[in-house]
Write a structure and sequence with these properties.
heterodimer, A: about 300 residues, mainly alpha, MetI-like fold, two-stranded antiparallel sheet, globular, B: about 280 residues, about 0% strand, MetI-like (chain B), BP-dep_ABC_trans_perm (chain B), transmembrane (chain B)
Chain lengths: ~300, ~280
C-alpha cells in the first residue's frame, strides 16, 4: 500500500474499531458509571448514591463468598486444565499409533456447546440416574450415591471438574504445537549424555516452551474468571452460594433482581481483578516476545 | 525416540484412558437419547439401551426446537459473515499499515478480547433498550460481531503477516489500485485464515448464552442454548428428550469442526505458539 492510500487503511479499520469501541470499551465506562447509581425492581429510575453502593457490597457477606469462590474456581480450573492439557500433549507427542484420531476426538469437548456440556454433566452427576455414581459404586470408589451438585461441600469441585473436562483440550492443543517446536537435536544430545525422560523434560523441553506455558496459563486465568454458562446452567450459583462466582452473581443481581447498580458494582470489582491479571499477561507476553527475538 | 515394549504398552494404555475420559460422556448422551421412554434407568446404569429407538428425537424435534434452531442459524450465520468480512479488512490494515497509531490500536483490540462479558452487559442492555432493539436478531448479531472481532482480527492478522508483500507490489506495478489488490490478491490468498476464523466465530456464537439469555424475552426469538436451558425446567426429568435435543444442538458445530479442523487448529496455534 502506497503512502497516498493511507486513507484506505482507516476506512478498512473504521467499522471494526467502531463496533469494538461502542460495544466493548464504552460499556466498560458505562459499568463504572452505573455502579454509582442504585436501581431496584420497585424504583427502576437510577438514583445517584456515589460510593454508598460499594460500601454496601463490601460489607455484605455475599461479597466474601463470591470473591473466594471466584478465586477457588479460577485457580482450580486453570491448574488442572493446564496440567491435564500438558500431560495429554506430552502423551500425543510420543508418536504412538492412532494419535491423529485421538487428538481429533479429544478436541470434541472444546467444541461441545457450554449449555449442552452443563446439561449433560448435571445428568451425569444425578444422584439416582447418573453415570458418575453408578461408575463409582461399580468400581468400589464409593459405597453409596451422592448428590454432588446439591451438596455445598462438593458442588464447587464437581463444577471445576466439568470445566476442566471441557477446557483441557484447548490447552492440550497449544502445548502440542509448542512441543513440536522443541529442538529434536537437543533432545537427542541430552539422551546421549544419559538423561532420562524426566531429566529431558526438565532440562530441555520445559525451558524451551516456558514462555508458551506462562502466556497460556495467564490467558486461561482470564478466560476462566469470566466464565458464565457452565456454572449458571449447572447450579445457578448454589447450593447456598457455594458456586456463586462474579459472572453468575452479576447476572443474578442485574437480570434476576433488577438491581443494576449493585450488579455493576460487582462488575467493577471483577474488572479490577481482571486488570491485575491482564497486567500479568502483558508482562509475561512482553517477556515471551523478548525471548522470541533473542533465539 | 527409543521406547521399550513395556513403556510403549503403558503409553498406549494411557492414550486409551484419555480417549475414554473424553468420550464416555458423549457415549452416555447418545445412549440415553436412544433409550425408549418406557425403559427404566437401572442402578448400576446400563451403558446401552436394550431396544434403541429414535422416538426421543422425533418428540424433541418439536416446533419450538425448530424455531430456536432457525434463530441460531440466522444469528450465527450473520455473525460469521460480518465478523470475518470486517475482521479481514481490519487485519489487512493492521498488517500493512506501518503507522505507530495502528500498532497501538492493535494492542487495544487484543486487550478487548479479555473484557468480562458479564460486567459490560448491563450498559449494552441499556443501549439496546434505548435503541428499541431488545428481543431482535440485530441486538444479538451486533453483540456477537463485537465480541468475536478481537480474536478474529488477531487470527487473520497472523495469516496475513505470512503472505509475501511482493505479490501485492507486483500487482501495484501492473497498475492495480489498492481495492483491486485487496480483492484479487489478498482475499484469495487469505482463504485458509478466513476458514479458520469462520470456524472460531461459529463455535463461539453457536453456544453463546449470556447475551442471548439477557436480550431475548420471547420464545420466538430464543436461540438454541437458551431454549435448551428452558427445556430443563419444562421437561423435568425426561432425560431422553433432553439428551436427544442436546445431540441435535451439538451435531452441526461438531460436524463443521471435524471437516475444517485442519484450518482451525493451524489458525489457533500459529499465533499462540509464536506469541
Amino acid at each position: 500500500m502506497t503512502r497516498k492510500d493511507r486513507w484506505l487503511l482507516w476506512i478498512f479499520l473504521a467499522p471494526s474499531l467502531g463496533l469494538i469501541g461502542l460495544f466493548l470499551y464504552w460499556p466498560m465506562v458505562g459499568t463504572v458509571i452505573e455502579s454509582f447509581y442504585a436501581t431496584s425492581f420497585i424504583s427502576p429510575n437510577p438514583e445517584f448514591v456515589g460510593f454508598d453502593g460499594y460500601r454496601e457490597v463490601f460489607s455484605d457477606r455475599d461479597f466474601d463468598d463470591v470473591f473466594w469462590n471466584s478465586i477457588a474456581w479460577t485457580l482450580g480450573v486453570v491448574v488442572f486444565q493446564n496440567m491435564l492439557g500438558f500431560l495429554a500433549a506430552m502423551l500425543l507427542n510420543q508418536g504412538l499409533p492412532f494419535r491423529g484420531v485421538t487428538r481429533a476426538l479429544v478436541l470434541m469437548p472444546f467444541v461441545l456447546p457450554g449449555v449442552v456440556t452443563a446439561i449433560l454433566w448435571r445428568f451425569m452427576y444425578d444422584p439416582q440416574l447418573g453415570l458418575v455414581n453408578s461408575l463409582m459404586i461399580r468400581t468400589g470408589l464409593a459405597s453409596e450415591t451422592s448428590a454432588w451438585l446439591a451438596n455445598p461441600d462438593t458442588a464447587m469441585a464437581a463444577v471445576i471438574f466439568v470445566a476442566v473436562w471441557k477446557g483441557f483440550p484447548f490447552s492440550m492443543l497449544i502445548y502440542l504445537a509448542a512441543l513440536q517446536t522443541v529442538d529434536r537435536s537437543q533432545l537427542e544430545a541430552a539422551t546421549l549424555d544419559g538423561a532420562g525422560p524426566l531429566r529431558r523434560l526438565w532440562d530441555v523441553t520445559l525451558p524451551a516452551i516456558r514462555h508458551v506455558i506462562l502466556v497460556n496459563v495467564v490467558l486461561t486465568l482470564i478466560l476462566t474468571f469470566n466464565y458464565f454458562d457452565i456454572v449458571w446452567v449447572m447450579t445457578r450459583g448454589g447450593p447456598q452460594q457455594a458456586t456463586h462466582i462474579f459472572p453468575t452473581k452479576i447476572y443474578e443481581t442485574g437480570f434476576g433482581q433488577f438491581r443494576f447498580g449493585e450488579a455493576a458494582t460487582y462488575g467493577v470489582v471483577s474488572i479490577l481483578v481482571l486488570a491485575v491479571l491482564v497486567a500479568l499477561y502483558v508482562i509475561v507476553q512482553a517477556g515471551a516476545n523478548r525471548r522470541g527475538r533473542r533465539t | 525416540m527409543r521406547q521399550t515394549a513395556a513403556t510403549r504398552a503403558t503409553l498406549i494404555a494411557c492414550q486409551l484412558l484419555l480417549a475414554a475420559f473424553v468420550l464416555l460422556p458423549f457415549f452416555w448422551m447418545i445412549s440415553v437419547s436412544l433409550k425408549p421412554a418406557t425403559e427404566p434407568f437401572a442402578i448400576p446404569a446400563r451403558l446401552w439401551p436394550e431396544d434403541p429407538t429414535l422416538a426421543n428425537y422425533v418428540t424433541a424435534f418439536r416446533p419450538e426446537f425448530r424455531t430456536y434452531f432457525l434463530n441460531s442459524v440466522i444469528v450465527s450465520g450473520a455473525s460469521v459473515a460480518i465478523t470475518v468480512s470486517l475482521g479481514l479488512l481490519a487485519a489487512y490494515s493492521f498488517t500493512r499499515g506501518q503507522l505507530l497509531a495502528v500498532t497501538a490500536l492493535m494492542s487495544a483490540v487484543v486487550l478487548a478480547q479479555m473484557f468480562p462479558h458479564s460486567a459490560i452487559i448491563i450498559p449494552i442492555y441499556r443501549m439496546m433498550r434505548a435503541a428499541d432493539l431488545l428481543n431482535t436478531y440485530t441486538s444479538l448479531i451486533a453483540a456477537y460481531v463485537s465480541v468475536t472481532l478481537p480474536v478474529a482480527i488477531w487470527m487473520l492478522r497472523g495469516f496475513l503477516m505470512k503472505l509475501p508483500v511482493s505479490l501485492e507490489e507486483a500487482a501495484a506495478i501492473d497498475g492495480a489500485g489498492p481495492l483491486r489488490i485487496f480483492w484479487d490478491v489478498v482475499v484469495p490468498l487469505a482463504r485458509p485464515g478466513v476458514i479458520a476464523t469462520a470456524v472460531y466465530v461459529l463455535i463461539v456464537t453457536w453456544q453463546e448464552f449470556l447475551f442471548a439469555l439477557s436480550f431475548t424475552s420471547t420464545r420466538e426469538m430464543r436461540t438454541l442454548p437458551v431454549g435448551l436451558n428452558d427445556f430443563i425446567g419444562q421437561y423435568g426429568i425426561r432425560y431422553g428428550e433432553l439428551m436427544a435435543s442436546s445431540v441435535m444442538v451439538s451435531v452441526p458445530v461438531i460436524a463443521v469442526f471435524f471437516v475444517l479442523q485442519r484450518y482451525f487448529v493451524a489458525g489457533l496455534t500459529a499465533g499462540a505458539v509464536k506469541g
